[in-house]
Amino acid sequence: MKHTLNPDKTASPGKGDDRPNVPVDWLRQRGGSRRTVLGWMMGIAAGAFAVSFAVPAAALKALMLEKPVIAVGDVLTYADATTGGQPGQPFKASDLALGGSAQLFPIGKETNQDNLLMVVRVAAGDGVAGLAAYSAICTHLGCAVNEKLNRDSLILCPCHGSIYDPANHAAVRRGPSDRALPGIPIADGPNGTVLANGLFDGPIGPQ
Amino acid sequence: MLETQRTSQTAGEAAPPEPTQTVSNGGKRVGWLEERLQLSALQAKYGRKAFPVHSTFFLGEMAAISFLILVVTGIYLGLIYTPSITEITVGGLKLPEAFASVQLIESIPAANLIRNVHHWAAHVMIATLLLHAFRVYFTGTYRKPREITWVLGVVLLGMTLAAGFVGYALPWDAFAVTATGIGFGLARSIPVVGHLLSDLFFGGAFPSLGSLPRLYTIHVVVIPLSILGLMSLHLLLVLKQKHSMPGYAKKLAEPGKVLGIALWPYHALLAGQLVFLMLGGLSLLAAFVPVHPLAAYGPPTPETPMVKPDWYLLWIFGFLKLIPSGFGLTLGPITIGPEFVGGVLFPGLVFGALTLVPWLDRTNRRALRRFEYMEPPPQAPLRLALGVGSLTFVGMLLFAAYYDQVGLTLGQIWLLVLSVPLLLGIAIIGWSWLTRRRLRAATRFDPTSAD
Fold first, then answer.
1. Please, is B24 exposed, middle or buried when counting C-beta atoms within 10 Å of its C-beta (0-12, 13-18, 19+)?
2. pLDDT tier at B396 (50, 70, 90 boundaries)?
């Protein structure tokens, strides 16, 4: 700490003044004064005050909705009334003919749009054999795909025209989307119902 | 009794001394308010300020009146509305609380009328703001000394558009959720800070439990207070610098003098008439032109309806529609996609250019005198051409929002969007060059003031 007094550096009161030379501290040797000290203190206080706003601001961020996620064993129910089933009514594997499709939610978890499933019958069969289940949320910008397949029996998203092939792991056939719809395994449940049997094999919606 | 009093009064100087501030009003008794507030001093200093008169000078005022109407009708609506997305059962149906509360508003005729007035006032506010901005731009009155006033105006315009966007989310019908979700996606597309900013503004990953209450507070408190504060500053500047004047004032009044009608009572009378005219007009609109009833789209469903924003945001939608979907680049972890370019960068550039107008204008560079008069637009052909070209470009974007429904291809609409404004701008420059003899120095109007 070089805070020793340098006797050669003293404040000269100037000619004609009869005050004696006084020894000068290390701050004054560098041309500072009490004003400098106060300035620094004010600056640091103001800076700390400004930075401290980050604490309440950080609390503003997170207020997440408790979103129930689809799980193994969830009974699949109709999402809405357009394909002939009542919302909340359990879906039966026999409800779909070849080329038919339905949009389903796991029972009780309709509040999470990400749980929306697109189930398509791609081949004849008993129970879930011949059914393919995918996420109904388009991987382009997050719109829900059309519940009915188009004329070529492909999944179509009405927002920007992305097309997925349900018989081929919902791979992208055309459109601005560049990622297949994530698939999810399904299994037979009691009384002909269909259960979710795993998790999605990819992230839902746009990434 | 009386006589005693009289006697005692005349007996000595028992009468209380006259209050020293009382202003003699030709012998009449001075008013109760005057004794306490000295309104006559206020009138002498401010009430006699001259407001220049021109047909376009009421546009800003109309925007301010619309804002006032929005606040009053908004307060009324806020007394009924519930900003919550929790589902409640109404008449056997499970509906979000916000949706149900707007249904309640719709079911009460008086409240529904006020809701429609609120909606129309929003459109009128934005429209008059834009017309007011055009007036200032095309007459060159954003120049010295009014650059700060101009910048404040641009910020006010942006805030008003934001208020419209956030207000649209509140009914929480299928349209509201989809449209706000698109805005959320645009905010999310900002590289690096997109997630943080969008979570902050939308209260989490939209539609989250905190989204609607946060948007409500932003729409009802944050934006209106900001608009009020900035508008007050804007008007204070106009008071200090005096409103710019029409060209005829230069001939009729001496330099440095403002020619106009006194604030009180003449301008105030006109403003009062305007308030009632606008209230009447808005009420007629509200009564006869239906406004986005909830039944049009219904409560939010898993399906995504096709939505387009209202006209004041449709230009962004149109530009987004023109961008090819593969457009963008990835620099390491940062992805710049078409949503960011069309939804954030493009509007940002437009507003940036708007803000810089006073500094892009070469006639305003190190100007020695102040521009106190409106300049006739044909006198500034470059300003006129750039202004008309830009407006035409934005207009073409509005048209581009529907290009697929009109049967055009992407290439054709791009051609139209670029060529029509360019041709119009060139036509204006050409016309002004052809008529340049008419703009010789002798007939040229000098918008600066010697003062």
1. exposed
2. very high
Q: Check CB contact of A1 with chain B, cutoff 8 Å.
A: no
CB of B189 within 8 Å of any CB in chain A?
no
Residue B205, chain A, CB below 8 Å: the answer is yes
Lowest-pLDDT range, A12-26, A68-82, B389-403?
A12-26
Averaged pLDDT, B85-103 = 92
DSSP string, B360-422: H-GGGTT-SSEE-BPPPGGG-HHHHHHHHHHHHHHHHHHHHTTHHHHT--HHHHHHHHHHHHH
- The tens digit of pLDDT for each residue in A10-22 reads 555 555 556 667 7
Distance from CA of A95 to the nearest CA of B (A): 20
C-alpha span between A73 and A50 (Å, rounded): 52
Structure confidence at residue A23 (pLDDT): 75
Of B208, B302, B303, the CB nearest to A63: B208
Which string of DSSP letters, residue by residue, matches A121-190?
E-S--STTTTEEEEE-B-TTT-PBPPSS--TTS-EE-TTT--EEEGGGTTEEEESS--SPPPB--EEE-G
- B302–A62 C-beta distance less than 8 A: no
3-class SS of residue B66: helix
Cα–Cα–Cα angle for B199, B205, B209, rounded to 5 degrees: 105
| A62 at interface of B, judged by CB pairs closer than 8 A | yes
Per the CB < 8 A criterion, the answer to whether B168 and B179 are in contact is yes
From CA B392, how far away is CA B404, in angstroms rounded? 20
Please give, rounded to a whole number of angstroms, the shortest distance from the CA of B397 to a CA of chain A.
Answer: 18
B119 and B289 Cβ atoms separated by less than 8 Å = no
- State how far the Cα of B150 lies from the Cα of B382, in Å rounded to an integer: 19
Interface test with B, best of A67, A140, A143 (most B CBs within 10 A): A143
What was the pLDDT predicted at A20?
Answer: 66
Distance CA B347, CA B312 (A): 12
Q: Helix (H, G, I), strand (E, B), or coil: what is residue A58?
A: helix
d(CA B48, CA B379): 33
* A161 at interface of B, judged by CB pairs closer than 8 A: no
Q: Which of B100, B95, B48 is nearest to B263 (CA)?
A: B48
**Cα-Cα-Cα-Cα dihedral sign, residues A66, A70, A73, A76:** positive
Which of A101-110, B135-144, B245-254 ranks highest by mean pLDDT?
A: B135-144
Task: Please state the ipTM of this predicted complex.
Answer: 0.70
Given this model, what pLDDT does residue B332 score?
82
CB-CB neighbours of A73 under 10 Å: 11
Q: Which of residues 72-131 of A touch B (CB under 8 A)?
A: 79-80, 103, 105, 110, 113, 116
- The average pLDDT across B231-253 equals 93
Residue in B450, B293, B445 with CA at minimum distance from that of residue B375:
B445
Question: CA B300, A116, B89, A92 torsion: positive or negative?
Answer: positive
Q: pTM to 2 decimals?
A: 0.84
